[in-house]
Amino acid sequence: MLGKSNVCVAVLKNLGDFSAYEKNIRYHQSPGKSQILIQRDEEARADSTFERVRQARSRRSNNADGLFAAISQEDAMTEKIKRTERRVALTKILTSRPSQLFSLSYFSTLFEAAKSTLSEDMEAIGQSLEQFGLGKLETVAGASGGVRYLPCRSMDSMGSLLTELSEKMSTSDRIITGGFLYMSDILYDAHRMARVGEIFMTLFAHTSPDVVMTVETKGIPLAMMTARAFNIPLVIVRRGSKVTEGPAVSINYVTGSSKRIQTMSLPKRALASGAKALIIDDFMKAGGTARGMIDLAREVGAEVVGTGVLVATSEPEHKLVDDYVTLLILSEVDEQTKKVVITPKMPI
Asked: What values do phi and psi take at 328, rounded to 5?
């Protein structure tokens, strides 16, 4: 049987066109232009596919890098928020309980943070408080140490507050019959008395009192805020003994202005022997009440380490108490002219 090529040869020979036969052989033995174009097109498509794959991989890589960057930025922001929230909470806890010592272990457990991190927080908080004259943080070393907020006031801060108070008290509508000055609205203003209490804490911090002592009734808010600033108890002396307070020690004292004999008493369990007492009162004219409290404290064996009053009169010049600190001086109350002269006395 004749093969396909032999048949082609035979046919072409019969037709007398052997050259066509040779052309046909050369066509099948070497690639034509169309085959070369097809091959090149396939190669181009392969290159294009490879480039698309490379670009897709590059885009995925860039997207991954961007995702990782976004996650890192989000983590940093979250950490910053956590730090800010922690510092706000630390500031609130410390300033809400002045002079109370907190251990770093307490805060470490509360915030689940390392002590080194908390130390950085304390340093930043302390710098901010001092920068704005709002007090300072004190670090106590040792096993029983820690950190505490001391509401110490700067001289500028004290001067500003005392000037504000003197201006408020100097209005003529405060004059009461008998030459007295109405002060109840100021004495029962918790915010103002808290700031005044911090002034007394600043001035008497070196005395390290164990209790703040006052007499009923108008001096109680100021004494209470001073005791809060020191983080110590308040002891209230009464004009008469109360059955509900148990056994009491009573003394008679002479008022400095009217020279009348009055009685004041103190529960025995209120003030321990050897305790250091800081006397705080709202007003002093001749010093008879303050003198009575000093004598009463000594009667129970306590030591008076200081006496502070919000307002003292300029007359009489010599009081029954030798060593005291007053924040404001009342020089004149004239019912006829409706004139009130009260000025700050900046303590040194």
From this structure: -130, 145
- Find the helix or strand (DSSP H, E) in which 192 lies: helix 190-204
- C-alpha angle 228-208-221 in degrees, rounded to nearest 5: 25
Q: How do residues 8-31 score in pLDDT, each as one tens digit?
A: 444 444 444 445 444 454 444 555
Residues 6+ positions from 147 with CB-CB distance below 8 Å: 94, 101, 102, 104, 122, 137, 138, 139, 140
**Radius of gyration of the chain from its Cα atoms, rounded to whole angstroms:** 46
Q: In this structure, are residues 326 and 196 in contact, taking their beta carbons and an 8 Å threshold?
A: no
| Cα–Cα distance list, 4 to 7, 19, 24, 292, 311 (Å) | 5, 18, 13, 142, 133
Average confidence score pLDDT of the chain: 83
| Token pair of 235 as six digits | 């002891």
Tokens 């097809």 appear where?
Answer: 38
Which helix (H) or strand (E) element contains residue 202? helix 190-204
Give Cα 332 to chain centroid, integer Å: 41
Which residue in 152, 156, 147 sits closest to 195, CA to CA?
A: 152
Instruction: Tell me: pLDDT of 101 over 90.
Output: yes
Rama region for 304: left / alpha / beta (φ>0; ψ in -120 to 50; rest): beta
Say what the pLDDT of residue 53 is. 63
Q: 157: Cβ–Cβ under 8 A, 6 or more apart, which residues?
A: 133
Residue 269 DSSP label:
G
Q: How far is CA 119 from the centre of its chain?
A: 15
Residue 89 makes CB contacts below 8 A (sequence gap 6+) with 111
Length of the chain in residues, anyone? 348
- The owner of tokens 């500028």 is 156
Handedness of CA 212, 204, 288, 331 (dihedral sign): negative
Alpha carbon 35 to chain centroid, angstroms: 84
pLDDT over threshold 60, residue 115: yes
The tokens of 21 are what?
């036969």
